[in-house]
Amino acid sequence: MEYILDLHTHTIASGHAYSTIREMAKAAADRELKLLGITEHAMAMPGTCHEFYFQNMKVIPREQYGVELMFGSELNVTDYDGNVDMQEYTLRRLDYAVASFHPPCITPGSREENTRAACLVMQNPHVLILGHPDDGRYLMNYEEIVRASRETGTIIELNNSSLNPSGFRKNALENDKVILNFCMKLGVPVVVNSDAHIDADVGNHVYAQKLLDEVGFPEELILNDRPEEIKKRILDKRAGL
């Protein structure tokens, strides 16, 4: 599998990450990536940047060290109706968004509540990726999640950071196996992302690749070698805006 894109990474602007945009871009070039997505945490996450940061991203060069850059946000799901912590005016200025569940921003609900929130946030035309749905602190009906992914054109993320043995997400390995099996059964693609918070982790998919090999996940359902399909999915999701 040729991994040439990574769509979920963070710089120092997120408040608990450690590298600059240039450092992340250089790391992407060193790892021979063609497309790097930088997705700072949205405003409900403690310590992250102000909304002005996202409104001013037009000033950033979109190619550095030969790597194409896209700028988005990792939005926080804030309630069980699938609302997020960024207004439409700012969302329209992003290239795309990842939507994720984080304890500082939403208290884990019941399996039904968490599943409802995830399915509803995937209907948001700005949300391209459902981030780390493997976090067992947020119990979900994974078959419903995968079906909603197919219906909305939202991409399920396999998050390498979740699978790090020193990671903090609960039962991520077991949950990812369930998710991947439903994706295979239903023909739903995934994207593998590093969730890098430092340049050394850009393009790091080692834990994810080990799991993909273990479950025999087909390469044709992994989108990391298809930047143009990613861009088409963004356009398709936003077509009704």
Quickly list its features.
alpha/beta, TIM Barrel, 241 residues, 8 helices, eight-stranded mixed β-sheet, 16% strand, 8 strands
Commentary on this structure:
With 241 residues, the chain is of the alpha/beta class. The protein has a single domain (5-237), classed as Metal-dependent hydrolases (TIM Barrel), CATH 3.20.20.140. Helix content is 32%, strand content 16%. The protein is built from 8 helices and 8 strands, in the order E-H-E-H-E-E-H-E-H-E-H-E-H-E-H-H. It has helices at residues 21-30, 51-55, 88-91, 111-121, 142-152, 172-186, 206-215, 227-237; strands at residues 5-6, 35-41, 63-64, 67-76, 97-100, 127-130, 155-159, 190-193. Strands 1, 2, 3, 4, 5, 6, 7 and 8 form an 8-stranded mixed sheet that branches. Helix 5 (142-152) crosses helix 6. The mean pLDDT is 97.
